[in-house]
Each structure stands twice: as C-alpha cells, then as structure tokens.
Amino acid sequence: MGYFEDQHNKAKGGVSEEFSASFHTEQNDAISVESLHKVTNGDIELAYSLLGLFREHSQKYLSDFTTAKTQDERVNAIHALKGAARCIAAHALADIAQEIEATQRQNKDSSEEERQNLVNVTQDIMTYISMVEARKHQRNNSA
C-alpha cells in the first residue's frame, strides 16, 4: 500500500498499514488496535509511549487496589486502573474495572471471581505489550 492509500485509510478512520503492523497480533483480545489508532491519531510512537506508561503504572494500581486499607483507597486505585485501560483502548479491562468501581462505591466488596478476572485481563495486556515491544526491538535491530 502506498503513501496516499495509507493516508486515505487514515482519513476514513481505518488503521494505517504501518500502525497495524506495529500493534496487531494474532491473539489480541486485550487491546483494540482500531481504538488505539484513534486515541493516538495514528501516532505510532505515542502508542508505544502509552503502552509503556500502562506497563509501568498498572501493576502499582492493581497492587494499591489489593492492599488498600479503606474503601476510598480501593475506589481511587481501581478508578486509576480504569482510566489507564481506557487510554490504551483496553476495553475489557476498563469494563471490568468499571464494574468493580461501581461495586466499591456502593460500599460492597467485589467478588473473588471479579478480582481474579481483573488480574487475568491485566496480565493478558502485559503479555500483549511485551509482544509488541519485542517486535519493535526486533524491527529496530534489523533496520
């Protein structure tokens, strides 16, 4: 695909070939590549930066949630994780976090199943980010 076709796809709201090649994986249910493309306006380096920030901060948010002493601390931690997930188009994680946040705001505890699902989906995203970063590293070394 040439430059003009790539720009045309961007204008139509499609994902550019270069962006897709950078972020699409065969087993990617963790992040919507199309939504990440929209969030970053197709800026590949911004997408890498957002994924890196998520990797750096999500584990802290998850840890803060599980070790929180008060309801407010739990709500703040899960709210931060939800926001981070939305920034990288991790819709499944954001939806799970939103459900848990709503439960916490009602002064109820989330179920063990919900918490385990939160951890599992977060781990899936971390695996996805590792795969994308490894692919980027491989491309940089072969260029």
Briefly say what this structure is.
With 143 residues, this protein is mainly α. It has helices at residues 3-11, 17-23, 33-40, 44-67, 71-87, 91-105, 112-142. The model is unreliable at 1-12 (pLDDT under 50).
What does this structure look like?
There is one protein chain. This protein has 143 residues and is mostly helical. Helices cover 78% and strands 0% of the residues. The protein contains 7 helices and no strands. It has helices at residues 3-11, 17-23, 33-40, 44-67, 71-87, 91-105, 112-142. The longest helix has 31 residues, at 112-142. It is elongated and about 50 Å long. The chain starts with a helix and ends with a helix.
For the report, how would you describe the main beta sheet?
none
* Mean pLDDT value: 87
- Helicity, as a percent range: over 70%
Radius of gyration: 17 Å
pLDDT below 50 for ≥5 consecutive residues: which ranges? 1-12
Order of helices and strands: HHHHHHH
Shape: elongated
- The percentage of residues in β strands lies in under 5%
State the end-to-end distance: 20 Å
Q: How many strands?
A: 0
Which structural class is indicated by helix and strand composition? Answer: mainly alpha
> How many separate helices?
7
Task: Outline the secondary-structure elements.
Layout: H1 3-11, H2 17-23, H3 33-40, H4 44-67, H5 71-87, H6 91-105, H7 112-142
Helix pairs in contact: 4-5, 4-7, 5-6, 6-7
Give structural attributes.
143 residues, mainly alpha
